[in-house]
Amino acid sequence: MRLTGLPFLCNEGRTVVLGRPNTNTAIAMLIAATASLACVSRVNIEVPDSIDQGWIVIEYHREDCPYDGASEFVVSGSGYACTSQEQRAGWFVWQLYKVDPDGTRVALSLEDRVHSQERSSISTTSSSGTRCQFTVDTFWYGKEEGASGRWTSVLAVEHPECQSELEGFPL
What we know:
Elements: E1 2-4, H1 25-33, E2 41-48, E3 54-60, E4 72-74, E5 80-82, E6 92-99, E7 105-108, H2 110-113, E8 114-125, E9 131-141, H3 152-158, H4 163-167
Parallel strand pairs: 2-4, 2-6, 3-5
Antiparallel strand pairs: 1-6, 3-9, 6-7, 8-9
């Protein structure tokens, strides 16, 4: 499991740190040490057994995707998952599962399987006038030395109307 993000204000008012992961980490960790773990959310990511390695893209704020609290993502065979909810802020713990065809879940170590993790936002207009706006979490799934290609290729499959803009997007 990997702790990602920064603490957020819980309903009980335990923690008041907002920001991005590049905020002063020492201050964030000091404040986080005083917070209750009740404020930490778990995010489960299920990867199908058919994927040995490749880019995983989780897209947020997509209206035609389920509103699931952004806490359970079932990745498709192409490496894509989505939710209609906004991108999660604050502390959260990722738990990665490999899912067999019969539905059996096996917990995996993130340290061995997740590399080049990043959060990105893309906002552009295609040559046909289509608005291409995405907020995503991405990571390479598999052996680190096998990392190749671009995560934008996974997004281009889901949004063919924005394919040329995604192919040219600087990473």
